Structures are given as C-alpha cells and as structure tokens.
Amino acid sequence: MKQVTRQRQKDDTKFSLVVDGNNLLKISLVNDTMNSKGEEYGAVISFLRMLGNVLKKKDFDYCVVAWDGEGSGVLRWQIYEDYKANRGKKYWEYDPNLSEYSERLVKYQQALMKYSKLKKGVEDEDISFERQRAIIRSILEELCIRQYVFDKVEGDDIIAYYVKHKKENEKVVIMSSDKDLTQLISDSVIIYNPRIRDFITKDNSVERIGITHQNVVLEKILCGDSSDNIKGVKGLGEATLIKLFPFIKDEKTDLKAILERSRSLLEERAQNKKKPLKALENIVNGVTDGCQGEKLYEINKKIIDLSEPLLTKDAEESLKNELYGIMDTSDRTIKNVYSIIRDNDMSELFDESKFSEIFSSYERIRMMEERRFKEYSKK
User: Fold this and answer.
1) For residue 218, what is the domain's CATH number?
2) What gap in Å lies between CA 361 and CA 54, rounded to an integer?
3) Based on the structure, what is the number of domains in the chain?
4) Which residue segment(s) compose the domain that 193 sits in?
5) Tens digit of pLDDT for each residue in 233-274?
6) Claim to verify: residue 243 and residue 285 sit in the same structural domain
7) What is the separation of C-alpha 159 from the centre of its chain, rounded to a whole number of angstroms?
C-alpha cells in the first residue's frame, strides 16, 4: 500500500472494519464459478459481495484487510514445533539455520511441484486459493481498501496489533469466523461472523461461542486447539472443563484460580474417600501429550494470547508507520477494476447491474480515502 505519511488526530467517533482476509476467502471457496479457461473465480465474487454487505451496515471511515503472509505461522512454530503440523505445514523451510544449498533445494522442489501440476492442467485448491487471492488484492487496491501482509506473519496478529493501537475514539468491527479473535472483544471492539451472519459482542459472547470472550484464551491454554494442532492438558476437553468449572462459562477467571480450584476439588475428593480425577491431577501438574512438556501453560499462552501479537521487526515497523497513513488514491479508479475483471475473464461481472450491486457499497470508503488524500495534498 502506497503511503505518504502517518497521520493521527482526535475527532468524533470513527468506525473501522478490519477483515481477516484468509478466513473470509476460505469461506468464499464454496463458490466454484469458472471462466472460459477453466479457472475458478467464484470465490472472488463471494468475497467481494460478503465484504460489501458488511460495509453497508455502517458508515465506516476505514476498511482494512489483514492477510496471512508467506510462511505465516513460522513465528509460532519457533515456539511450538508441532504448530499446524496437521495441515502439512513445512515451517522448517523457513529455519534461519537452513543452509544455502538446502534453501535452494527447497525452492527448486516447490517450483517443480507447481510446474508439474500446471502442466497436467491441474489447479489444486492451494493454487486456486493463491490465484484468486491475488485477484482480490488487486481489486481491493483499486477500491482504496487498506491491506497489510508480511512474510512469516499471520493475519490474526496484524488484526490484534490494529486493535491494540487503534485510536481512542475508534470503534472496530472485526470480520472473521475465527474463534481466536473473539478474545479481542471489548467495549469498542465487536466481531462480525460471516458464517452465522451476526455480530458477537461482550453481551452475547456466551450465547454465540459457548463461553465468555474473556476466557477464550484461558480455555485454549488449557484445552488446546485441534484446528492448529495445539495440545492442551491431557484428557481435558471443552465439555469437561465447563463441567468441572461451570463459572468459567460466564465469569472472568484466570489460570491461577483454575489451579487453586483444581487442588481444592482434589482435596474434597480425598476427604470423601473418592478416587482423584485424572483430569484435575493433570491440570495441577500441567500434564500434556504435546511437545510443550513442563512449559505447557507458558508456551500455550505465548502462541494463543493475542494481547502480545507475534510480528517480525519489519512488520511492526511498517504497521507503526502506516496504520493511519494517508493513502495515495491518485491512480486508483473503478475503471481499473473493470480491467482486472476483463483480464481474468470473470464474465459474471460483465453485467452492469451485477457489477453495480457488488461494488456500490465500496463507494463511501473510496470517497473517504480520496478526501483525506486531497486534504493532505492541499497542505
């Protein structure tokens, strides 16, 4: 994103929409519309339509899309070596100690595999995802949507950084179906979940996600997260956790309180001559099947708690300088959007009424960014 300068100012309440780009694109992949070359582009349409529909819900002053970068997740892998191992991630390829020869060999193998698939006329899910993501990013650029992507950094951490450094008078809507991001909910931050098409706030988080947003981090520290291959306490699942500690569902608590309550429950059982519950013993002793060993709670907190986003130095410096920078809108036009659509043979959008239906909701954001740029240019 081209930036001119960083600008912060105090004014009336501002509203921002911050989008989990990869998450929204994955949801959009159910649309498999193809062009004449046999390339899918349905996810592009679904992504733009869903984002546009949310933009209609509020007069947003900013719209930001955070994307996973190349090698995203490697910063967590460096802390926890089994991170996302269930998804076939090869984070060792980003090991700083990898020899120059090994690095060249990895890149050669990646290129060979990609070439082999393309030669066979096969566009697998990963290739389709990346191609459609590139189209979406180019269109969003023309629509004056702010986008951030950094090598080795996950979109969640960019969103967390934004929330942590938002303006005092700013209210944020995060667009994502990722439960991890519900930990960021506050008086000035809410979630819009595109899967359920509803908002999650501090007042309805128990109803929407089954536990108060204030305890999402604690729940994942204790139970782990199977989707990211994060192991928790051995034998402890979410249902068991709530059964043992019903207060965790709607009352803010912490690990210290859970450990103390676990010891108390074990003592009560001993006094009543009952067998100790293994789950309680494992909580007290931090027993896990994962590679965290004795550092279960320490490691899980580092990789789950977004109050301290995991960013590279370059990413943090860029965000620090660009977060509220003035966007150069001089070369961004709706005409360029037409060109991108034509170049990618997305025939469904050739229809003027359908084009207008999808892109009209982006007009306010374009106007806001253009106005800020014009005001800055006059100085």
Assistant:
1) 1.10.150
2) 9
3) 2
4) 3-88+125-211+313-378
5) 999 999 999 999 999 999 999 999 999 999 999 999 999 999
6) yes
7) 7
Is the pLDDT assigned to residue 104 strictly greater than 70? Answer: no
Amino acid at 291: C
| Beta carbons within 8 Å of 1's beta carbon, 6+ residues apart | 141, 146, 147, 148, 322, 327
Q: Is position 115 within any domain?
A: no
Residue after which a domain boundary falls, among 304, 326, 361: 304
Which has more confidence, 283 or 2?
283
Return the pLDDT at 126: 86
* Model confidence pLDDT, tens digit, residues 21-54: 999 999 999 988 999 989 999 999 999 999 999 9
- Do residue 226 and residue 343 come from a single domain? no
Q: What is the pLDDT of residues 165-187, one digit of tens each?
A: 999 999 999 999 999 999 999 99
CATH number at residue 322: 3.40.50.1010
Domain boundary among 286, 304, 322: 304
* Residues 19 and 135 grouped into a single domain: yes
For residues 106 and 334, the model is more confident at 334
Handedness of CA 118, 123, 124, 127 (dihedral sign): positive
Q: Would the pLDDT of 66 be above 70?
A: yes
Whole-model pTM? 0.90
Q: Let me know: does 232 contact 282? Beta carbons within 8 Å.
A: no
